[in-house]
């Protein structure tokens, strides 16, 4: 979590956020069912009310006054999550939302303007497609997809319906990454040849969810949960610990690398890799998981730089990100979401030792008027990203992370996962939007 100074800054940003004025007509008859004026309430429905879903509920509630929004429907296949979301949102808004079990029910409600999608990642793209076809704006958690054809179909449905979709790589909306991105785009780094990212954690990530012992088959709809996957016997461990199982998630790439590579795409203005080559394995936690607990991938990009992404769940060594340019290095100190960026100037060359300055100039990336060190650590409850989406729902402008950016980070993560499982170098063909084992001609 960020320190108190970050919390104060976040509160200030929430209070100072202005509503976009004027009534907004829908871009197509199917994509927006009613006029939403600056003071009209936005009615939200929530699909998938588990752990991250609870965070999104809290974030939305913090915007209920400044952005005139209310969670009016909650939807989850499991009665336990449904009942919890019902109680939580009743507390936030002073009245109970409706509670439904199936996606089709919530998408059929004409008085729901938009939906939050925080289901397991194998269902992100299929449900996004359904939401677009129902004319609903959507906030969909990352990764936007982990099956290539499903991710394409979700993107295309959104573009066809002209709905407003925000993909949940929220760091694009936060002030410190925004300030650092401007530096990266300014030319201050010079030619960047390599980006290094290492985010670590010590523990059997995603294993040991208590809900595994609480759920019963009769309290959910197992077939609907599987969605596009083949039928198999009910498995409560798979239901809640899906990130450990290959068919439903790639684990580290889907969950952690999606954030990291999205920032690289944004900072470097280079959205699709040329190639990916991965390695790793289950080296730390031999608990029946299929997905790696130790993972590394190398990606090459068209502009001529290499990205190294690495995560270990067996050791919490300090995490960092480095953009390495000929003129300077832009470093992020800490793991995902850390606001502490530092710019260090390069001096001289090794061909001329006399020009090497051991006291290279360095400075932290600060917000206007800020003094001292920026805070460290991640705050999962920042409101800027959802606020940006709500504002774009009224203006019908595009938000900070559209389906184009969501599709791009999904492609990079899918390439990394495909390379890991096949042992081959995977190439991206931007013309056909397909993966291959050889570089496209």
* Neighbour order of strands in the largest sheet: 16-15-14-13-7-11-10-9-17-18
Q: Calculate the mean pLDDT score and round it.
A: 91
Figure out the total of helices. 12
The profile of the biggest β sheet is: 10 strands, mixed
Query: What's the end-to-end separation, in Å?
Result: 47 Å
CATH topology-level fold name of the largest domain? Rossmann fold
List the helices and strands in order: HEHEHEHEHEHEHEEHHHEEEEEEEEHHEE
Low-confidence stretches: 1-35, 352-357
CATH architecture label of the largest domain: 3-Layer(aba) Sandwich
Give helix % range.
Answer: 25-40%
CATH 4th-level superfamily of the largest domain = NAD(P)-binding Rossmann-like Domain
Category from helices, strands and their pairing: alpha/beta
Shape: globular
The total domain count is 2
Please write the CATH class name of the largest domain. Answer: Alpha Beta
Kindly state the number of beta strands: 18
Radius of gyration computed on alpha carbons: 22 Å
Hey, roughly how much beta strand do the residues contain? 15-25%
Structure description:
- This protein has twelve helices and 18 strands.
- It has helices spanning 4-16, 51-62, 79-93, 103-107, 124-133, 148-161, 175-186, 222-226, 236-240, 252-268, 384-395, 403-422, and strands at residues 42-47, 69-75, 98-100, 114-117, 137-140, 165-167, 192-198, 201-202, 275-281, 294-301, 305-312, 314-315, 320-325, 328-333, 341-345, 362-364, 426-429, 434-436.
- The strands form three sheets. Strands 16-15-14-13-7-11-10-9-17-18 form a ten-stranded mixed beta sheet. A six-stranded parallel beta sheet has the order 3-2-1-4-5-6, sandwiched between helices. It has a two-stranded antiparallel ribbon with strand order 8-12.
- Helix 2 (51-62) runs parallel beside helix 3, helix 5 runs parallel beside helix 6 (148-161) and helix 10 (252-268) packs across helix 12 (403-422).
